[in-house]
Amino acid sequence: MNDDIQIHTTQAEIFDRWGNMAFESTAIPVQWNGEFNGTPLYPGVFVYRIELKYYDGVKDRMVLLTGDVNLFR
């Protein structure tokens, strides 16, 4: 772990299999409880996209993280 890393901003989005946004956040850290507007979502596969801007001790950087997460109940 690099102690010099400073996270500036995050933009997280999670989508259902039809492309509907199920979650959006700019909070650090990103946390999702499997709900949409306070209602638990059905189990399934969701796609995430997280844009992370940070300073690594030398220069500002940006990384785009994408993938999927399985929601189980």
Task: Give a quick precis of the structure.
It is built from no helices and six strands. It is mostly beta strands. It has one domain.
Describe this structure in words.
By secondary structure, the protein is mainly beta. The protein has one domain (6-71). It has strands spanning 6-15, 21-25, 35-36, 39-40, 44-55, 60-71. The strands form two sheets. It has a four-stranded antiparallel beta sheet with strand order 2-1-5-6, with no helix packed on it. Strands 3-4 form a two-stranded antiparallel ribbon.
Roughly what percent helix? under 10%
Taking strands numbered 1, 2, ... along the chain, how are they ordered across the largest sheet? 2-1-5-6
Could you name the ranges where pLDDT drops below 50 across 5 or more consecutive residues?
none
| Global geometry | elongated
Radius of gyration: 14 Å
Topology (elements, then pairings):
Elements: E1 6-15, E2 21-25, E3 35-36, E4 39-40, E5 44-55, E6 60-71
Antiparallel strand pairs: 1-2, 1-5, 3-4, 5-6
Main attributes?
73 residues, mainly beta, 59% strand, elongated
